[in-house]
Amino acid sequence: MKIDGINIMDSYSIDSTFKIEQQLNKAEEFEKVLEKAKEEKNDEALKNACKEFESYFIHQLFKEMRKTIQSGGLIQKSRAEEIFQDMLDEEYSKNATKGQGIGLSDMLYKQLSQYTKTENTTN
Asked: Distance (Å, rounded) from C-alpha 54 to C-alpha 48?
C-alpha cells in the first residue's frame, strides 16, 4: 500500500490565496486610515498612512527583485527560510522609510492633503 504525501500544488494554491487576501487587507486598511484622517482632519494619521504605504511598496519591490535571483547551491531553500527572508525584507522596508525614504510618502501626503483640503472647503 502506497501512501502519498501532501499534494504540493494544493499547498501553493492555498499560499497564493493567502497572499492575495493579505494584500487586499492591506489595501482596505490603508483606505480606512485615509478616510479616518480625512474625517478627523488629522495630518499626522495621514502622514503615517503614507509612510506605511511607502513601506509596503518597497517591500513589494524587494519581493520582485528577489524573484530575479536564480536559486542555486547545494541545499534547496526551505519554506521556513523563505518566510524568514520575507519577514527580513519587510523589516528592511520599514527601516527604509524611517528617514526620508524614497520620497513616495511625501508625494502621496502632498497630493492627498491637498485633495482633502479642497474637499473640506467646498462643503
From this structure: 10
